[in-house]
Amino acid sequence: MKIRIKKLNLLLIFLLGLPIVLATSANYYAKTTVYFNIPSDASFRIALPSAYSYEDITGTDYAGATETSPGWVSFNFSTIPDEHVEPYAEGNAAYTQSGVATPIFLYDPTGTSAIALTINLTTIPTGVYIGVNGSCGSCTSPKTVEGNLTANTAMSLTTSLATDDFFNCTLWGYVDATASAGESSGTMYHHSAAA
């Protein structure tokens, strides 16, 4: 009788354990795509040589562009022709660009993504040429070789400026014999976009 009870117990244990083994041996998987929409923030701030205090840029289009402080720079030519004239902030000789050591514009990214920087000057008088170049810590494709601005055409300063980097922009003025005497002005736009 003991043998039968043992066999019966073993058979019961086997039969009771069988569904558990069958239920746990099958594995099923499903998948779902999850998107993480993190906005790119291509904001920056800019400083000019009057105090080199940075100003946050908040304008998001040409019409709402942030006015820099100081609000203007000038090229003060002394002769015709004249070349390699460095601009002043607010027309003040104390606030003169001095090559790359004291550039006319300092750009500092403040957002969450690397930025591409461009500048665009709306008006350039006949006979005047504005050269542009700059430097950065480790940005991509910096405008290191001087090139002339063309009115109403964006010029790339860098294609990718990291959030922990900087860009120094220098401008150089040239005037030739075709220029007319007098004062004129244009608007320079500074633009950033996520790189």
Q: What would you note in describing this structure?
A:
The protein has one helix at about 1-25; strands at about 45, 55, 75, 80-85, 90, 105-110, 115-120, 130-135, 145-150, 155-160, 165-175, 190-195. It has about 200 residues and is α+β, with helices and mostly antiparallel strands. The chain has one domain. The strands form 3 sheets. Strands 1, 2, 4, 6, 8, 9 and 11 form a 7-stranded antiparallel beta sheet that branches. Strands 10-7-12 form a 3-stranded antiparallel beta sheet, with no helix packed on it. The chain has a two-stranded antiparallel ribbon with strand order 3-5.
Element layout with pairings:
Elements (H helix, E strand, L loop, with lengths): L1 H24 L18 E4 L7 E2 L16 E2 L7 E4 L2 E2 L15 E5 L5 E7 L6 E9 L10 E2 L6 E7 L5 E9 L12 E7 L1
Antiparallel strand pairs: 1-2, 1-6, 3-5, 4-11, 6-11, 7-10, 7-12, 8-9, 8-11
Mean pLDDT, to the nearest integer, reads 86
Largest sheet: 7 strands, antiparallel
Shape: elongated
Structural category is alpha+beta
Number of strands: 12
Care to give the gist of this entry?
This protein has one helix at 2-25, and strands spanning 44-47, 55-56, 73-74, 82-85, 88-89, 105-109, 115-121, 128-136, 147-148, 155-161, 167-175, 188-194. The chain is of the alpha+beta class.
